[in-house]
Amino acid sequence: MMMKLAGALLLMFLVVHGVECQLQVGFYSGSCGLAEFVVKTAVRQAFINDRGVAAGLLRMHFHDCFVRGCDGSVLIDSTSSNTAEKDSPPNNPSLRGFEVIDAAKSRLEGICGGVVSCADILAFAARDSVELVSIKSMTVGFNVRLRSNVGQLTQIFANKGLSQAEMVTLSGGHTIGRSHCSSVAPRLYNFNGTATALKQQCPQGNSNANLVVPMDAISPAVLDEGYYVDVFSNRGMFTSDQTLMTNAATAAQVGQNAGNRMLWSAKFAAAMVKMGQIGVLTGSSGEIRANCRVVNS
Question: Which GO terms describe its cellular component (predicted)?
Answer without folding.
Answer: extracellular region
